[in-house]
Amino acid sequence: MDAPQITLGSINVEAADPNALATFWATLTGGTPTSTGDSVYLPPAGPGGFAMFFQPLTGPRPDHPTIHLDLTVPWGTRRQEVDRLISAGATKLWDVLDEHPHVRWTTMADPEGNLLCVAEHPPSS
After folding, report:
1. Do 87 and 123 lie in a common domain?
2. Is 78 a member of any domain?
C-alpha cells in the first residue's frame, strides 16, 4: 500500500471577531489576510508555512480547548518570540523549561483564548 499523500490545507478557527483574530495571527505568521464576507483567509507566508481560515463563531466557546497549535522557533529565540506575541495581544500562561531535555516551550493564549505553544528544540550535536 502506498503512503498517504495528505497535507495540511488550512487550520480553521471559529472566532467572535474573525478580522481581529486573523490580524493577530498575521502578525505571528507574516501572512496577509483576505476578507471574504464574514470570513477571513490567511495564506501561508512562505514555504513551510501554514494557512488559516477564520469564520464567525457558531455557538458558545468550549470551556476547555481540545486542540492547540505547537509553533516552533529557532533555539534561543523563544523568549523574544513570546515577547513579540504578547505585544501583539497574546497572553503568556506558563513556561515548561526542564520537563523534557529535547524541548522548552511557553504556553500562551491568543486574544480570543485559543491556546498555542511556542517551542524551541536545542540544536543537534
Report:
1. yes
2. yes
pLDDT, tens digit, 9 for 90 and up, residues 86-123? 999 999 999 999 888 889 999 999 999 999 999 999 88
How many domains in the chain? Answer: 2
What's phi and psi for 12, nearest 5 deg?
-100, 135
Rounded CA gap, 113 and 65, in Å?
9
On whether the CB atoms of residues 100 and 120 are closer than 8 A, the answer is no
3-state secondary structure of 93: strand
Whether residue 78 sits in one domain with residue 122: yes
32-41 contact pairs (CB < 8 A, 24+): 41/10
Grid-cell match 497549535, residue found: 69
**Residue range(s) defining the domain that contains residue 38:** 8-57
CA geometry: angle at 36 spanning 69 and 8, to 5°? 35
